[in-house]
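cache lookup: miss for this entity combination. No prior model stored, computing from scratch. Input as submitted by user K.M.:
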Amino acid sequence: MSTLPMTFLDRYNELLSAAIEKYKFRSEPKELYEPMNYILSNAGKRIRPMMVLMAAEAFGAPVEKALKPALGIEFFHNFTLIHDDIMDEAPLRRGVPTIHTLHGTNTAILSGDGLLLKAYKFFEDLEPELFKPCIRIFTQTGILLCEGQQYDVLFENQENVTYSHYLRMITYKTGILAASAFEIGAIIAKAPSADARSIFNFGMNLGIAFQIMDDYLDVFGDEKKFGKKHAGDIYENKKTILYLMARDFSSAEDREELDFWYSKKTDNIDKIYGVEKIFKKAKAGEKALLEIQKHTDLAFQYLAKINLPDAKKQAFLDLSNYLLKRVS
Amino acid sequence: MSTLPMTFLDRYNELLSAAIEKYKFRSEPKELYEPMNYILSNAGKRIRPMMVLMAAEAFGAPVEKALKPALGIEFFHNFTLIHDDIMDEAPLRRGVPTIHTLHGTNTAILSGDGLLLKAYKFFEDLEPELFKPCIRIFTQTGILLCEGQQYDVLFENQENVTYSHYLRMITYKTGILAASAFEIGAIIAKAPSADARSIFNFGMNLGIAFQIMDDYLDVFGDEKKFGKKHAGDIYENKKTILYLMARDFSSAEDREELDFWYSKKTDNIDKIYGVEKIFKKAKAGEKALLEIQKHTDLAFQYLAKINLPDAKKQAFLDLSNYLLKRVS
């Protein structure tokens, strides 16, 4: 990973870690709340709550005012992980057993529900005029995430997935939450609504670029730096951008071979070799990089529109570099 | 069931049915939204949304202003049913197959999540000063419901369940939602906060009395009028008020026999006879009726405190009679 903006991210990380510790659930019944504390303490990168803090500060709010709403975004994200892991039958998350693996599906459903509801509470310090727009965005983001998750589930058995289906799915699953995290930060700082909208669109395109990069790195990344198993998406027949581009830009013969491999779930290394060869022949990697570039450019265009001095925008550029330079 | 207040309930029912039809989900993906429409159209008694409308009208708001928040309460209630049915492995709900039975657990989890989020949207027509208190109550109610559901799940393997454990569980699972439905109606009508609190406490005690009555009717009700299978709770070893009172007020010998029967899941009719004999000897039914009376009296005391003319309170009395006179 890029080392450039570490001090900058470290500061937000410390704030967020302290806040998560402070607001740890101490209520009864512990069977409901311990799984919530468990997933929150096995921290991911906490990029989404950082986005709230970053936007709030850039637009002039004290970071403290955005801290609880930032946790609300983090809790919300973890609620989706708990429920998604049940649906995906995932045994591990961030290297540790998932909640449904440890405590069963019922506890995972209920702890997820509880975490979503608790997330709403973290906006309650805001005055009514800020509370309402933040909650509207928050709710709408949740609804789109559910839709995105449903599309993702449907993809598995759907024959004619197109790039535009894929783009909608990743927009809902990844783009919108990043967009909303920035927008909520901006609203808390009472940013002009045009700027709040621009930072929303910046976040959406950054999130999309990030997700496409994730698909790209599955095959073309350095496993050690990327931190995920090489070609995991191919093993699982995931309809990633690489697969979709390869299906669109391959000869009939190659497409038939691709369909053959994607009709089986197998650990056979021949599958990985075969599929990767087709991906390369179709220049699927290059096409993915072009899409990443396109959405990065769009993100920067929205950032440019925002009425803030360049110094205030530096954090957004640093974050973009951090998120998108994971290949290097 | 009592026929007394039917015109009165019919009017609300018509309003609610029309609103549910009007706001039926028409969005994509249909795999997410059709299960929501399915459970909403297989209407229950819609008591909870009626409570919102009833309180709003009593305190002087036009019923239309409360209609969407009332749907929010109904959607929320149905979200809990979808997820509870997964946990209980219930094959049927209101006489039709449950969502997880029809579409699998994953769809049921996601449709439940989506319905909870959609419920929040139904408050968005309220101005910020009403939106915030309503959402606070709504969220807190959801959290307590999750806690109540967790306690209920834990009861199954818990040896020392006491009446006070039971009372907390039914308060969270049934009392609070009725209480909040009334309070939200009152807030929408800008009722004085003391009155909003009183109608909350009225609803909580009414809900508790209703739930105890439900336990009572399982054994002592007329199956045809009650509409549920006789002694279903005994078959399922449910720790109802009848069981808890019998455990507390039986001889050592009877308690041993009760524990014996509750250690097996069996359809053996001897179990039902045996357990019912112990319930009767311990006067568990009479003790339950005393608790129902206690909470009904409390409810009416709170109702008496409210600063409204008697004519405006009649609807609340009619509803209480309707809900509690199910034996007659």
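stored under new cache key. The longest strand of chain B covers residues 92-93.
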